């Protein structure tokens, strides 16, 4: 865990996970999003994606894991996050989520991040986040 004064612009952390069928089914159960493009191979084969895709919010949730466990770490709280879903993520893809400090407001105890997920060399999600860092 980092204290606010320890953070510097350019610091970054990453997390990677290979997306499995069980992950997609589990996220559907947790989120209630049972869209057949995620769960039904036959349905998805007639979609523009041609096969099942992972929920975009599943990959985006890796940002939260990074904030809460790595940078800044325990006790921090999301203030905002925006996301652009650029490309689909499929079963078997390895998603690498990265967060990078782009600004720090010491007075308001806010840290601003660039956030993105990549599969291979392609960015599949881009965005930015604002995180509150408590005293301590």
UniProtKB/TrEMBL annotation:
InterPro entries given in the database record: Fatty_acid_synthase (IPR003965), HotDog_dom_sf (IPR029069), MaoC-like_dom (IPR002539), UPF0336/Enoyl-CoA_hydratase (IPR050965)
Q: What's the protein name?
A: Acyl dehydratase
Protein source organism:
Xenorhabdus khoisanae
A Pfam family in this protein? Answer: MaoC_dehydratas
Q: Name the SUPFAM superfamilies for this protein.
A: Thioesterase/thiol ester dehydrase-isomerase (SSF54637)
Presence of the UniProt keyword Metal-binding in the record: no
Q: Which GO terms describe its cellular component?
A: fatty acid synthase complex
Domain spans labelled MaoC-like? 14-111
């Amino acid at each position: 865990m980092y204290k606010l004064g320890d953070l510097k612009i350019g610091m970054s952390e990453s997390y990677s996970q290979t997306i499995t069928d069980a992950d997609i089914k589990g996220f559907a159960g947790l989120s209630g999003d049972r869209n057949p493009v995620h769960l039904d191979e036959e349905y998805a084969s007639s979609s523009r994606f041609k096969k099942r895709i992972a929920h975009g919010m599943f990959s985006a949730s890796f940002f939260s894991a990074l904030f809460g466990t790595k940078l800044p770490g325990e006790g921090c709280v999301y203030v905002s996050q925006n996301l652009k879903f650029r490309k689909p993520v499929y079963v078997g893809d390895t998603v690498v989520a990265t967060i990078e400090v782009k600004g720090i407001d010491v007075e308001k105890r806010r840290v601003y991040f660039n956030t993105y997920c990549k599969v291979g060399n392609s960015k599949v999600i881009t965005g930015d986040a604002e995180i509150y860092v408590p005293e301590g």
